[in-house]
Amino acid sequence: MDTLEQLRYPIGQDQLPEKIGMVNYADWIVTIRDFAWHVNDLVKELSSTELAYIYRPEGWNIKQVVHHCADSHMNALTRFKLALTEENPVIKPYKEALWATFADATDDDLSASMKMLDGIQARWYTCLSKLTPRDFERSYFHPEQQALVPLGEALGHYDWHCQHHLAHIQQALRYKNDFSNL
Fold first, then answer.
1. HEC profile for 83-112?
2. What pLDDT shows up at residue 2?
3. How far is CA 110 from the centre of its chain?
4. Distance between CA atoms of 44 and 26, rounded to whole angstroms?
5. Is the pTM for the entire model greater than 0.90?
6. Where does 54-164 show beta strands of DSSP type E?
7. What is each CA distance from 141 to 79, 91, 144, 154, 182, in whole angstroms?
8. pLDDT value of position 157
9. Which of 16, 43, 55, 98 could connect to 168 by a Cys-Cys bridge, CB 3.0–4.6 Å?
């Protein structure tokens, strides 16, 4: 039986390895490359009822997760490009929980978000696959964290983000909105 914490973080909380290097980057870049394909594979045949399954009590439903990933990765690609072209740019955080309430984030039609994910992940992969070790040391300033975030670490966080939300979709499909055993 899963606890609410396990349902919230089915692959565990975001934690980077102590030492990060090119081997990690290579693995994480593959995650970025393949993410849209994995999402599409999970959601392409789902009904409106299934798209409304939540991954935990009071959590997002599948369609909100998919739309969120498109929003999040759109912001991520922009953050990476800013860090690669400016010295420690200050990025703009956004209120993802509020974004998940907009009409475009609750729509059963996932096609626009899937097109976004396909394009964003492809462009991000192309960008990432050409980076040097020194490029991964470039950073952006995250005002909510009050910290500089090196791109190598950010890539690790987005690798986790991809796997985290894939697990949410799988979990929602497994539970089918029945959390009565918690």
1. HHHCCCCECCCCCHHHHCCCHHHCCCCCHH
2. 74
3. 16
4. 28
5. yes
6. 139-142, 147-150
7. 10, 6, 9, 11, 40
8. 98
9. 55
Distances in Å between the alpha carbon of 108 and those of 66, 98, 163? 10, 18, 22
- Give the C-alpha separation, 31 to 25, whole Å: 10
pLDDT for position 5: 93
CA neighbor of 10 nearest in space, from 177, 153, 178, 161: 161
Give residue for tokens 């759109």.
74
The domains of the chain, with CATH numbers, are: 21-175 (1.20.120.450)
When computed from its CA atoms, the radius of gyration of the chain, rounded to whole angstroms, is 17
